From TrEMBL:
InterPro entries: MATE_fam, MdtK-like, Membrane_Transporter-Flippase. The chain crosses the membrane at residues 20-44, 64-86, 107-131, 143-163, 175-193, 205-227, 260-278, 298-319, 331-351, 371-393, 400-418, 430-450. One of its GO terms (molecular function) is xenobiotic transmembrane transporter activity. It is found in: Cell membrane. This is MATE family efflux transporter. GO terms for cellular component: plasma membrane. Keywords: Cell membrane, Membrane, Transmembrane, Transmembrane helix, Transport. It is a multi-pass membrane protein.
Length: 465
């Protein structure tokens, strides 16, 4: 079946048929590789900045990167809401309704990105002052931050297109263009920072301009690619009336997106409070904890990728009314997470000291403490993966508040009081035991709600859009 110049229906990606385990793994791998790629991109750029600009440059960019992380977190919920809304519509074979979501989301993200970019360009200095940015790096941070804010429309646009593609069942195309962006960014950074060859020497501004150019080129080429391939959710000349504010869809994006965005805020607050607590035990503890958290960020990546994959898969199947398949997707996702995360945990446990030693100097007790922290916490990320997958399926139905409540309870009402109060009474190790305890609470609550709650009755698709 064809319509409006779309690709044939049979050629479109579908997550409502075929073997679940194979589909889940093939769908989650590009998401996983994309997450790894973005992390490596940031690490390599930090190496360039440190090499050419020293500690001052690193300090300036770290402050700016905190702002960028907050911005990405703020649109994460809206993007996920778009993923679910598009997925459910496609599962229900309502392609035109999915295009309505694309049209309204495009206008919404465009307006939002312009407002954010303008605000950042005008108030970068004020924002950095609020963050207590050290005076000796403040000017560098302002220059770097302003250029990053100028690139916000491309960053927001790229995230929206990735959401649309993943909602329609395509995780490969976003990865290819993330790869292009990362390669351009890594190559351009030293060229523009130090003025190598015909390139101007721009210092800290060069690093930000490199990111700006990489995002712009990747964003434009991705749009051209999708139109050349006649991607079925592209906005054609006949679809131009869909580029408008549909308030029903906007309300849905906000009502469902804000709780998912707040989930990341809860995680960030929990981590900041934990860092504040660990800092009170001295610099070696802080260093060891920092390394352990850097290692755990990689351990979490399979769970995050599988969680994103099951959300897209479940959304399409919920739209199609295939509830039996939704249940199989859930438990297949849990099993795949246990295998993938478990394998990484086993390898890191076997080579624990060697991995920690990559980040810390051989003298001092920080290495031993880092190894100890890993021994107590790494295995708990298998539990983290289980609750993340189950929560992803629950969200895909449109039930987004309960997973937020669970995160709040587990991370702020269980983990932080446990680590703060009991560590002073029973010792330093209580801080690390707060990880498996809080993750177990989150897993238990999410699984109980999945089995007994009314999440299947939630509605994402508006009655009339």
């Amino acid at each position: 079946m064809r319509g409006n110049g779309d690709t044939p229906a049979k050629a479109r990606p579908s997550l409502t048929e075929g073997p679940i385990a194979k589909t889940l793994i093939l769908f989650s791998l590009p998401i996983l590789l994309g997450n790894v790629l973005q992390t490596l991109n940031g690490s390599i750029n930090a190496v360039w900045i440190g090499k050419y600009l020293g500690e001052g440059g690193l300090a300036a960019t770290s402050n700016a990167n905190i702002i960028m992380f907050f911005l990405i977190s703020s649109i994460f919920g809206f993007a996920m809401a778009a993923v679910i809304l598009i997925g459910q519509n496609l599962g229900a074979k309502k392609t035109h309704e999915a295009k309505k979501v694309v049209g309204t989301s495009t206008v919404f993200f465009f307006i939002l990105s312009i407002l954010v970019a303008a605000f950042g360009l005008l108030f970068s200095s004020t924002i950095l002052t609020w963050m207590n940015t050290p005076p000796d790096v403040k000017d560098l941070a302002v220059v770097y931050t302003r250029i990053l804010f100028a690139g916000v429309p491309f960053m927001f646009g790229f995230n929206l297109i990735m959401a649309i593609l993943r909602g329609s069942g395509d995780a490969k195309t976003p990865f290819y263009f993330l790869l292009l962006s990362a390669i351009l960014d890594v190559i351009l950074n030293p060229l523009l920072i130090d003025g190598i060859g015909p390139f101007p020497k721009m210092g800290i501004a060069g690093s930000a301009v490199a990111t700006f150019i990489a995002q712009l080129i990747s964003f434009v080429l991705l749009i051209l690619y999708l139109y050349r391939k006649k991607y079925f959710l592209r906005i054609t000349k006949e679809d131009l009336p869909l580029l408008r504010i549909n308030w029903t869809i906007i309300r849905t994006l906000i009502q469902k997106g804000v709780p998912m965005g707040l989930n990341m805020v809860v995680v960030s607050i929990s981590n900041l409070l934990l860092v504040h607590l660990v800092n009170s035990y001295g610099s070696e503890s802080t260093a060891a904890f920092g390394v352990a958290m850097q290692i755990s960020s990689y351990v979490q990546m399979p769970a995050m990728a599988i969680g994103g994959a099951v959300t897209s898969m479940a959304a399409q199947n919920i739209g199609a009314g295939l509830w039996g398949r939704v249940n199989r997707i859930t438990w297949t996702g849990v099993a795949v997470n246990i295998l993938m995360t478990g394998l990484i945990v086993v390898v890191l446990t076997l080579f624990n000291r060697e991995v920690v030693s990559l980040f810390l100097p051989p003298e001092g007790s920080a290495i031993a403490l880092g190894v100890h922290i890993n021994n107590l916490t790494l295995w708990s990320f298998i539990i983290f993966g289980v609750f993340n997958v189950v929560a992803g399926v629950v969200r895909s139905a449109g039930s987004v508040v309960f997973p937020l409540v669970v995160a709040f309870i587990a991370l702020l009402l269980v983990r932080i009081p446990l680590a703060t109060v009991l560590s002073h009474k029973y010792g330093f190790d209580v801080i690390w035991w707060s990880f498996p305890v809080s993750f177990t609470v989150a897993m238990t609550l999410n699984v109980i709600y999945y089995q007994l709650g009314k999440w299947r009755q939630a509605r994402m698709i508006p009655a009339k859009a």
